[in-house]
Amino acid sequence: MELPIILQIKNTYYPVLAAFGVPAHLVTIVILSRGNCGLSKCISVYMVAMATAELLVIIFNVIVYHILSYHFPYSFLSYTAVCKFIIYMNAAALDMTVWFTVLFTFDRFVAICCQKFKTKYCTVRTAAAVLTTVNALFCLKDIPFCFAYEPERIINNVHWVCRTRVDFFSKHAGVVYSWLRSILIPLLPFALMLLFNCLTVRRIVVASRARRGIRGRSSENQSDPEMENRRKSIVLLFTVSGCFILLWLTAAVSFLATKLTNTVHYPGDYETPAYISTETGYLLMYLSSCTNTCIYAATQTKFREELKKMMTFPWTFILRLVK
């Protein structure tokens, strides 16, 4: 019997995404950690954190959950304890990816719009402290996932697979927690990113007009290094946050529609519009975890140079040995 189209797409899509995502993020982390991309140390800290979180999404959400657990049922990954840990890491990795992107957007907003606060906030120490604190808070927030699932089967006193505990999500506390998670991902991040980006654009437009007025007509044909650096920073910021919002939008709309209409997917309903839209949202959502490397390569000249050096290093090293 032929598999439904959406399952055929998933069976091809996730392995390709993993094959590209893991090496791409490892290379990105190495390049950014070297600090030779012409970016400030503060920006590099946020970008390394984002790349690390996205790598965790590829490992746990894509490879472990959607590939290994699907193609190797009743392996050690199907033990209930391991299954709960995987679900917990799926939630934690997505939380980190989303909120590290929000923190990156806020950092650029402060750097451009809040000059007095910039000297205190836009530092490596502050960035590390903020990232660590947010990570710890969301790891604590996801602990209820460990109690929201129960064994699906018990064979020879061994607990297998996970299924949702109906009593957990039917109680008021479970309903509140579910909606709280919906607000924290992705509704509130969407709102914050749009707010920070709009305020940043407004500040840039006002500052650009004032700067052109100060420089006067005599310097119209001369390059302005400060404005050029600001332009590159803004292109990076808007591209990262814009791609994130666009690729998460389908998942957000699908999830809200499912919540508001109380639509429930049952196993086997692979051709219903609700299931297809939900899975399409997941496909695009996980794709967002692989776009930043491409964005860096497209918008940052020095990143491309460092990437080229890494790609050609093995061959140049071999040639040196041969000579």
Question: Helicity level, as a percent range?
Answer: over 70%
Radius of gyration: 23 Å
Compute the number of strand runs.
2
Overall average residue pLDDT? 87
Strand order of the largest sheet: 1-2
Biggest beta sheet summary: 2 strands, antiparallel
In whole angstroms, the N-to-C terminal distance is 58 Å
User: H/E element string?
Assistant: HHHHHEEHHHHHH
β-strand amount: under 5%
- Low-pLDDT stretches are none
Give a verbal description of the structure.
With 323 residues, this protein is mainly alpha-helical. The protein contains 11 helices and 2 strands; from the N terminus they run αααααββαααααα. It has helices at 5-34, 41-71, 80-113, 115-121, 124-141, 166-170, 172-215, 225-261, 273-287, 291-299, 301-322, and strands at 149-155, 158-164. The protein has a two-stranded antiparallel sheet. Strand 1 and strand 2 form a beta hairpin. Helix 3 (80-113) crosses helix 8. The chain is globular, with a radius of gyration of 23 Å. The model has no long low-confidence stretch (mean pLDDT 87).
SSE blueprint and pairings:
Layout: H1 5-34, H2 41-71, H3 80-113, H4 115-121, H5 124-141, E1 149-155, E2 158-164, H6 166-170, H7 172-215, H8 225-261, H9 273-287, H10 291-299, H11 301-322
Antiparallel strand pairs: 1-2
List keywords for this structure.
single chain, 323 residues, mainly alpha, two-stranded antiparallel ribbon, 11 helices
Provide a compact summary of the structure:
With 323 residues, the chain is mainly alpha-helical. It is 78% helix and 4% strand.
